[in-house]
Protein backbone atom coordinates (compact mmCIF):
# COMPACT_ATOMS: atom_id res chain seq x y z
CA UNK A 1 0.00 0.00 0.00
CA UNK A 2 1.39 3.37 -0.98
CA UNK A 3 1.56 6.05 1.67
CA UNK A 4 2.60 9.68 2.03
CA UNK A 5 5.41 11.31 3.93
CA UNK A 6 3.18 12.26 6.86
CA UNK A 7 2.06 8.67 7.47
CA UNK A 8 5.62 7.44 6.89
CA UNK A 9 7.02 9.75 9.55
CA UNK A 10 4.18 8.95 11.95
CA UNK A 11 5.08 5.27 11.67
CA UNK A 12 8.77 5.95 12.23
CA UNK A 13 8.08 8.32 15.10
CA UNK A 14 5.83 5.91 16.99
CA UNK A 15 7.99 2.81 16.52
CA UNK A 16 11.11 1.49 18.16
CA UNK A 17 13.61 -1.30 17.53
CA UNK A 18 13.80 -0.35 13.86
CA UNK A 19 15.79 -2.47 11.42
CA UNK A 20 16.86 -0.79 8.17
CA UNK A 21 17.64 -3.00 5.17
CA UNK A 22 19.92 -2.21 2.21
CA UNK A 23 19.80 -4.04 -1.11
CA UNK A 24 22.39 -6.63 -2.09
CA UNK A 25 25.48 -5.38 -3.97
CA UNK A 26 25.06 -2.13 -2.03
CA UNK A 27 25.73 1.19 -3.72
CA UNK A 28 26.04 4.73 -2.46
CA UNK A 29 22.31 5.40 -2.52
CA UNK A 30 21.09 2.43 -0.47
CA UNK A 31 23.96 2.80 2.03
CA UNK A 32 23.57 6.57 2.23
CA UNK A 33 19.80 6.39 2.72
CA UNK A 34 20.10 3.65 5.34
CA UNK A 35 22.70 5.44 7.44
CA UNK A 36 21.03 8.81 7.00
CA UNK A 37 17.87 7.31 8.48
CA UNK A 38 19.86 5.41 11.13
CA UNK A 39 21.46 8.63 12.40
CA UNK A 40 18.10 10.44 12.39
CA UNK A 41 16.37 7.69 14.37
CA UNK A 42 19.13 7.34 16.96
CA UNK A 43 19.16 11.14 17.29
CA UNK A 44 15.55 11.02 18.53
CA UNK A 45 16.24 8.15 20.90
CA UNK A 46 15.21 5.17 18.77
CA UNK A 47 17.11 1.89 18.78
CA UNK A 48 18.00 1.20 15.17
CA UNK A 49 20.35 -0.93 13.09
CA UNK A 50 21.34 -1.33 9.45
CA UNK A 51 21.74 -4.71 7.75
CA UNK A 52 22.85 -5.74 4.28
CA UNK A 53 23.16 -9.17 2.69
CA UNK A 54 26.60 -8.27 1.32
CA UNK A 55 29.57 -6.51 2.95
CA UNK A 56 29.36 -2.72 2.73
CA UNK A 57 31.75 -1.24 0.14
CA UNK A 58 35.19 -0.28 1.35
CA UNK A 59 35.03 2.99 -0.59
CA UNK A 60 31.96 3.98 1.48
CA UNK A 61 33.74 3.31 4.76
CA UNK A 62 33.49 7.00 5.68
CA UNK A 63 29.71 6.52 6.01
CA UNK A 64 29.68 3.43 8.22
CA UNK A 65 33.10 3.31 9.87
CA UNK A 66 33.12 2.97 13.65
CA UNK A 67 29.38 2.35 14.01
CA UNK A 68 28.53 -0.67 16.14
CA UNK A 69 25.08 -2.05 15.40
CA UNK A 70 23.00 -3.39 18.31
CA UNK A 71 21.35 -6.78 18.09
CA UNK A 72 17.60 -6.90 18.73
CA UNK A 73 14.39 -8.43 17.46
CA UNK A 74 12.96 -5.70 15.19
CA UNK A 75 9.50 -4.33 15.76
CA UNK A 76 9.61 -2.34 12.52
CA UNK A 77 11.47 -3.36 9.35
CA UNK A 78 12.28 -0.64 6.82
CA UNK A 79 13.67 -1.24 3.32
CA UNK A 80 15.46 1.64 1.59
CA UNK A 81 16.15 1.92 -2.15
CA UNK A 82 14.79 -1.62 -2.68
CA UNK A 83 12.31 -2.01 -5.54
CA UNK A 84 11.57 -5.70 -4.96
CA UNK A 85 12.26 -8.35 -2.33
CA UNK A 86 14.45 -10.19 -4.85
CA UNK A 87 17.04 -7.48 -4.22
CA UNK A 88 17.36 -8.29 -0.53
CA UNK A 89 19.91 -11.03 -1.13
CA UNK A 90 20.15 -14.45 0.53
CA UNK A 91 21.16 -13.22 3.98
CA UNK A 92 18.06 -11.04 4.35
CA UNK A 93 15.47 -13.34 2.77
CA UNK A 94 13.92 -13.97 6.19
CA UNK A 95 12.58 -10.40 6.15
CA UNK A 96 10.95 -10.60 2.70
CA UNK A 97 7.43 -11.12 4.04
CA UNK A 98 7.67 -8.78 7.02
CA UNK A 99 8.77 -5.43 5.64
CA UNK A 100 6.61 -2.76 7.24
CA UNK A 101 7.85 0.27 5.32
CA UNK A 102 9.69 0.81 2.04
CA UNK A 103 11.23 4.17 1.13
CA UNK A 104 12.12 4.12 -2.54
CA UNK A 105 12.38 6.03 -5.80
CA UNK A 106 12.22 3.23 -8.40
CA UNK A 107 9.30 3.39 -10.83
CA UNK A 108 9.44 -0.43 -10.95
CA UNK A 109 8.73 -0.80 -7.21
CA UNK A 110 6.50 -3.88 -6.74
CA UNK A 111 4.61 -2.53 -3.70
CA UNK A 112 5.73 -5.47 -1.56
CA UNK A 113 5.83 -3.65 1.78
CA UNK A 114 2.90 -3.03 4.11
CA UNK A 115 3.45 0.69 3.42
CA UNK A 116 5.52 2.22 0.62
CA UNK A 117 6.69 5.81 0.36
CA UNK A 118 7.54 6.13 -3.32
CA UNK A 119 8.72 9.14 -5.29
CA UNK A 120 9.79 8.05 -8.77
CA UNK A 121 10.70 11.65 -9.61
CA UNK A 122 13.43 11.66 -6.97
CA UNK A 123 16.86 11.11 -8.50
CA UNK A 124 17.92 9.05 -5.50
CA UNK A 125 16.44 7.44 -2.42
CA UNK A 126 18.65 9.84 -0.48
CA UNK A 127 16.83 12.80 -2.05
CA UNK A 128 13.56 11.42 -0.67
CA UNK A 129 15.17 10.45 2.64
CA UNK A 130 16.29 14.04 3.13
CA UNK A 131 12.61 15.09 3.01
CA UNK A 132 11.67 12.32 5.45
CA UNK A 133 14.30 13.38 7.97
CA UNK A 134 13.35 17.02 7.68
CA UNK A 135 9.67 16.13 8.16
CA UNK A 136 10.64 14.18 11.30
CA UNK A 137 12.01 17.47 12.61
CA UNK A 138 15.52 16.11 13.01
CA UNK A 139 18.41 18.54 12.39
CA UNK A 140 20.78 17.35 9.67
CA UNK A 141 24.16 16.53 11.21
CA UNK A 142 27.40 16.13 9.28
CA UNK A 143 27.25 12.29 9.26
CA UNK A 144 23.70 12.50 7.88
CA UNK A 145 24.73 15.11 5.33
CA UNK A 146 27.70 13.04 4.10
CA UNK A 147 25.55 9.92 3.81
CA UNK A 148 22.67 11.60 1.98
CA UNK A 149 24.93 13.64 -0.30
CA UNK A 150 26.69 10.42 -1.31
CA UNK A 151 23.44 8.84 -2.50
CA UNK A 152 22.39 11.93 -4.43
CA UNK A 153 25.80 12.14 -6.10
CA UNK A 154 26.21 8.45 -6.97
CA UNK A 155 22.73 7.96 -8.44
CA UNK A 156 23.14 11.01 -10.68
CA UNK A 157 26.73 10.40 -11.81
CA UNK A 158 27.84 13.42 -9.80
CA UNK A 159 24.78 15.36 -11.04
CA UNK A 160 25.49 14.72 -14.73
CA UNK A 161 22.63 12.31 -15.55
CA UNK A 162 19.25 13.38 -16.88
CA UNK A 163 17.50 12.31 -13.66
CA UNK A 164 19.08 15.34 -11.94
CA UNK A 165 16.37 17.92 -11.25
CA UNK A 166 16.25 21.35 -9.66
CA UNK A 167 15.11 19.67 -6.44
CA UNK A 168 18.09 17.29 -6.57
CA UNK A 169 20.50 20.20 -6.84
CA UNK A 170 18.64 22.12 -4.15
CA UNK A 171 18.86 19.09 -1.85
CA UNK A 172 22.59 18.77 -2.53
CA UNK A 173 23.04 22.47 -1.77
CA UNK A 174 21.18 22.10 1.53
CA UNK A 175 23.33 19.09 2.45
CA UNK A 176 26.52 21.03 1.69
CA UNK A 177 25.23 23.83 3.90
CA UNK A 178 24.62 21.23 6.61
CA UNK A 179 28.23 20.08 6.44
CA UNK A 180 28.56 17.50 3.68
CA UNK A 181 32.17 17.26 2.49
CA UNK A 182 31.10 17.53 -1.16
CA UNK A 183 34.51 18.24 -2.70
CA UNK A 184 36.16 15.34 -0.86
CA UNK A 185 33.28 12.95 -1.62
CA UNK A 186 33.23 13.92 -5.32
CA UNK A 187 36.97 13.43 -5.64
CA UNK A 188 36.94 10.17 -3.67
CA UNK A 189 34.05 8.60 -5.59
CA UNK A 190 34.44 10.01 -9.10
CA UNK A 191 38.02 11.18 -9.63
CA UNK A 192 40.08 8.53 -7.88
CA UNK A 193 40.42 4.92 -9.09
CA UNK A 194 42.66 2.08 -7.99
CA UNK A 195 45.24 0.50 -10.28
CA UNK A 196 43.08 -2.63 -10.25
CA UNK A 197 40.05 -0.66 -11.47
CA UNK A 198 42.10 0.86 -14.27
CA UNK A 199 43.27 -2.61 -15.34
CA UNK A 200 39.67 -3.87 -15.18
CA UNK A 201 38.47 -1.03 -17.41
CA UNK A 202 41.23 -1.70 -19.94
CA UNK A 203 40.57 -5.44 -20.13
CA UNK A 204 36.78 -5.15 -20.13
CA UNK A 205 36.75 -2.50 -22.86
CA UNK A 206 38.56 -5.02 -25.07
CA UNK A 207 35.20 -6.86 -25.21
CA UNK A 208 33.36 -3.80 -26.57
CA UNK A 209 31.04 -4.53 -29.50
CA UNK A 210 28.63 -2.34 -31.45
CA UNK A 211 25.17 -3.31 -32.68
CA UNK A 212 22.38 -1.71 -34.69
CA UNK A 213 24.66 0.62 -36.63
CA UNK A 214 26.46 1.69 -33.48
CA UNK A 215 23.32 2.64 -31.52
CA UNK A 216 23.91 -0.13 -28.97
CA UNK A 217 27.20 -1.10 -27.33
CA UNK A 218 27.89 -4.17 -25.20
CA UNK A 219 30.71 -5.10 -22.85
CA UNK A 220 31.35 -8.38 -21.04
CA UNK A 221 32.89 -9.06 -17.64
CA UNK A 222 33.89 -12.75 -17.83
CA UNK A 223 34.20 -14.68 -14.58
CA UNK A 224 37.72 -15.79 -15.50
CA UNK A 225 38.85 -12.16 -15.73
CA UNK A 226 37.10 -11.13 -12.52
CA UNK A 227 38.67 -14.05 -10.67
CA UNK A 228 42.10 -13.37 -12.17
CA UNK A 229 42.06 -9.79 -10.91
CA UNK A 230 40.21 -10.69 -7.70
CA UNK A 231 37.61 -8.04 -8.55
CA UNK A 232 35.01 -7.15 -5.95
CA UNK A 233 31.51 -6.06 -6.97
CA UNK A 234 32.14 -2.52 -5.75
CA UNK A 235 35.16 -2.25 -8.08
CA UNK A 236 32.90 -2.86 -11.09
CA UNK A 237 30.39 -0.13 -10.31
CA UNK A 238 29.93 2.39 -13.08
CA UNK A 239 31.82 0.51 -15.80
CA UNK A 240 28.63 0.21 -17.88
CA UNK A 241 28.54 4.00 -18.06
CA UNK A 242 31.75 4.05 -20.13
CA UNK A 243 30.27 2.76 -23.42
CA UNK A 244 27.18 4.90 -22.82
CA UNK A 245 29.38 7.96 -23.29
CA UNK A 246 30.35 6.94 -26.83
CA UNK A 247 28.94 9.20 -29.53
CA UNK A 248 25.84 7.71 -31.16
CA UNK A 249 25.28 5.01 -28.51
CA UNK A 250 21.71 5.08 -27.20
CA UNK A 251 21.87 1.81 -25.23
CA UNK A 252 24.84 0.39 -23.31
CA UNK A 253 24.62 -3.13 -21.89
CA UNK A 254 27.07 -4.83 -19.54
CA UNK A 255 27.08 -8.60 -18.98
CA UNK A 256 28.75 -9.59 -15.71
CA UNK A 257 29.20 -13.32 -15.26
CA UNK A 258 28.27 -14.61 -11.80
CA UNK A 259 30.10 -17.51 -10.15
CA UNK A 260 27.15 -19.83 -10.96
CA UNK A 261 27.28 -19.04 -14.68
CA UNK A 262 24.31 -16.68 -14.74
CA UNK A 263 24.69 -13.06 -15.87
CA UNK A 264 24.00 -9.81 -14.07
CA UNK A 265 22.82 -7.37 -16.72
CA UNK A 266 23.19 -3.60 -16.39
CA UNK A 267 21.54 -1.33 -18.95
CA UNK A 268 22.12 2.40 -19.40
CA UNK A 269 20.31 4.48 -22.00
CA UNK A 270 20.06 7.89 -23.55
CA UNK A 271 16.78 9.71 -24.24
CA UNK A 272 15.75 7.48 -27.17
CA UNK A 273 15.42 4.28 -25.10
CA UNK A 274 13.90 3.06 -21.83
CA UNK A 275 16.27 0.89 -19.78
CA UNK A 276 13.54 -0.19 -17.36
CA UNK A 277 11.28 -1.35 -20.20
CA UNK A 278 14.10 -3.56 -21.51
CA UNK A 279 14.90 -5.14 -18.15
CA UNK A 280 11.30 -5.65 -17.10
CA UNK A 281 10.98 -8.16 -19.94
CA UNK A 282 13.40 -10.36 -17.98
CA UNK A 283 12.01 -9.89 -14.48
CA UNK A 284 14.20 -6.90 -13.64
CA UNK A 285 13.60 -3.18 -13.55
CA UNK A 286 14.92 0.14 -12.36
CA UNK A 287 14.78 3.58 -13.93
CA UNK A 288 14.20 4.90 -17.43
CA UNK A 289 17.93 5.57 -17.90
CA UNK A 290 19.40 2.86 -15.64
CA UNK A 291 18.08 -0.63 -14.95
CA UNK A 292 19.18 -4.21 -14.44
CA UNK A 293 18.14 -7.85 -14.50
CA UNK A 294 19.58 -11.36 -14.28
CA UNK A 295 19.68 -13.98 -17.03
CA UNK A 296 20.87 -17.58 -17.25
CA UNK A 297 23.86 -18.44 -19.44
CA UNK A 298 25.43 -19.19 -21.74
CA UNK A 299 26.60 -15.74 -22.76
CA UNK A 300 25.49 -16.15 -26.39
CA UNK A 301 21.93 -16.89 -25.27
CA UNK A 302 21.82 -13.99 -22.82
CA UNK A 303 23.33 -11.65 -25.41
CA UNK A 304 20.80 -12.70 -28.05
CA UNK A 305 17.86 -12.10 -25.69
CA UNK A 306 19.05 -8.66 -24.56
CA UNK A 307 19.90 -7.50 -28.08
CA UNK A 308 16.47 -8.55 -29.31
CA UNK A 309 14.87 -6.43 -26.60
CA UNK A 310 17.26 -3.53 -27.23
CA UNK A 311 16.61 -3.66 -30.96
CA UNK A 312 12.87 -3.54 -30.40
CA UNK A 313 13.28 -0.56 -28.07
CA UNK A 314 15.30 1.22 -30.77
CA UNK A 315 12.79 0.29 -33.48
CA UNK A 316 15.40 -1.74 -35.36
What can you tell me about this protein's structure?
The protein has two domains: 5-190, inorganic pyrophosphatase (n-terminal core); 195-314, Diaminopimelate Epimerase, Chain A, domain 1, CATH 3.10.310. Helix 4 (125-135) runs antiparallel to helix 5 and helix 5 packs parallel to helix 7. The model has no long low-confidence stretch (mean pLDDT 95). It is globular. Helix 2 links the parallel strand 1 (18-21) and strand 2 (48-51). A six-stranded mixed sheet has the order 6-7-8-9-11-10. A five-stranded parallel sheet has the order 2-1-3-4-5, with helices on one face. The protein is built from twelve helices and eleven strands. The protein is of the alpha/beta class and 316 residues long. Helices cover 37% and strands 16% of the residues.
Summarize the structure.
The protein is α/β, with parallel strands linked by helices and 316 residues long.
- Overall CATH architecture of the largest domain: Alpha-Beta Complex
Radius of gyration: 19 Å
Measured by DSSP, the beta-strand proportion falls in 15-25%
Tertiary shape: globular
Low-confidence stretches: none
**H/E element sequence:** HEHEHEEEHHHHHEEHHEEHEEH
Integer count of domains? 2
The helix-and-strand class reads alpha/beta
Helix content: 25-40%
**Biggest β-sheet: count, sense, barrel?**
6 strands, mixed
- Under CATH, the homologous superfamily of the largest domain reads inorganic pyrophosphatase (n-terminal core)
Give the neighbour order of strands across the main sheet: 6-7-8-9-11-10
CATH topology of the largest domain: inorganic pyrophosphatase (n-terminal core)
What's the oligomerization state? single chain
- How many helices does DSSP assign? 12
CATH class bucket of the largest domain: Alpha Beta
N-to-C terminal Cα separation, in Å?
A: 39 Å
Tally of strands: 11
The overall pLDDT, averaged over residues, is 95
